[in-house]
Amino acid sequence: MSPVKFRPLLACLAAATALAAGLSAAPASAANTFRFAFQGDLKSLDPYTLKETFTIAAHGAVYESLVTRDKDLKLAPGLAESWETPEPTRYRFKLRRNVKFHDGSPFTADDVIFSAERVRAPGSNFQTNVPADATFVKVDDHTVDMVLKNPNPIALYQFGGWYIMSKAWAEKHDATKPTPVSATTPSYAALHENGTGPFTITEHQPGVRTVFKKFDGYWGKVESNIDEAVFTTISNDATRVAALLSGEVDWVDPVPLQDQSRVSSSANAVVVNAPELRTIYLGMDQTSDELRGSNVKGKNPFKDVRVREAFFRAIDEDAIVKRVMRGQAAAAALLIAPPLFPLAGEFKRPAYDPNKAKALLAEAGYPNGFEVPLDCPNDRYVNDEAICQAITSMLARVGVKVNLLAQPKAKYFAKILKPAYDTSFYLLGWTPSSMDSHNILYEITGCRTDKASPRGTTNLGNYCNPKVDALADKIERETDQEARNLMIKQAYDIVMNDWGYIPLHQQALAWGVSKKVKLVPRADNQMMLYWVSKEP
Question: What are the structural domains of the chain?
Answer without folding.
Answer: 33-250+516-534 (3.40.190.10), 276-508 (3.10.105.10)
